[in-house]
Design a protein that fits this description.
about 110 residues; mainly alpha; 6 helices; about 10% strand; elongated
Length: about 110
């Protein structure tokens, strides 16, 4: 389970960062506009909803990036124990590089 410790830390840091950096918007609200760009006022409820959605998305985004490498390493060790139980440094570095690249490729939006 040590391989997954970074994920909750990153998720927590993302949530705290959004709250601290956007606290002013929660207190004062955000400007609302209609489809034509006309100002319709300021809403604290809209700010709260927007920050909740942003926090949720920032917590979900790193899941693939942080889980693909450890899960891939576990699966490779089970499938090919001869090569991946006690891999050499070269195999370990190459495997981790590929798994991290795949995590970024599938986990980050285009």
């Amino acid at each position: 389970y040590q391989r997954f410790v970074a994920l909750p830390a990153v998720m927590t840091a993302a949530a705290i960062n959004i709250i601290l950096m956007r606290r002013n918007e929660l207190e004062t609200g955000i400007a609302l506009q209609d489809d034509n760009g006309n100002d319709m006022g300021i809403s604290q409820n809209a700010a709260k909803k927007a920050l909740m959605e942003m926090t949720f998305s920032r917590m979900i985004l790193p899941i693939a990036t942080f889980t693909a490498p450890p899960i891939g390493a576990i699966l490779l060790a089970r499938a090919f124990p001869k090569y991946f139980r006690n891999p050499s440094k070269i195999i370990s570095i190459a495997t981790n590089s590929v798994l991290v690249t795949l995590g970024f490729g599938f986990g980050l939006p285009a």
